[in-house]
Amino acid sequence: MGWLDAVTGRRKRVGNDLDALFGVPGAALTLQTAAGWTPTGQGSVCYRAAAGAAFAQTQADITALIQDDPQAPDVEVTRDPFGFTWLVVQGDPDDLSGLCTDLHAVNSSLEAQGFADGLLCSMVTFVGHGRTVGLVYLYKRGTFYAFAPTGPHQRDNLTEIAIRDQLAGELPMEPDLQKWLALWDAPGL
């Protein structure tokens, strides 16, 4: 931060790096071998839907793009109680690379059409130890964190921190714990 930014109270916006999503398959191997978490094949992108025909057409084009493959994954668009839209992709658990490519395409398409301000996060889900955990990519921060719900509005912070520590060398992990959003009622969790 420069002195002018300090005086005016402005901060440089942290840039995202959507290509970091392509690091998830390697990180998944670490999670599977070191901690017993296996991918479910489900991933999602959370965003605030814009009003209007342009956004509706963009969302329809994205869904068609993902489903344009002979072995296309299932795609569903849902809304959560907080007003966010989730584009959920359910594919083969053994094809995590394909899932991450689809999530990258969703984010890139929304960004290219001018809807980047509405992007919140992307999530890939894992299962193990009798429950589900989400590996979350914060779009505006360009970092990852784990979200491990244990019940209605309860989470397992120790598991989240353990996953952070296991993946620190493979993915850009979010250092500020206050940015680790609770994704209550997120699809797949």
Automatic annotation (TrEMBL):
Pfam families: PspAB (PF22742). InterPro entries: PspAB-like (IPR054383). This is Uncharacterized protein.
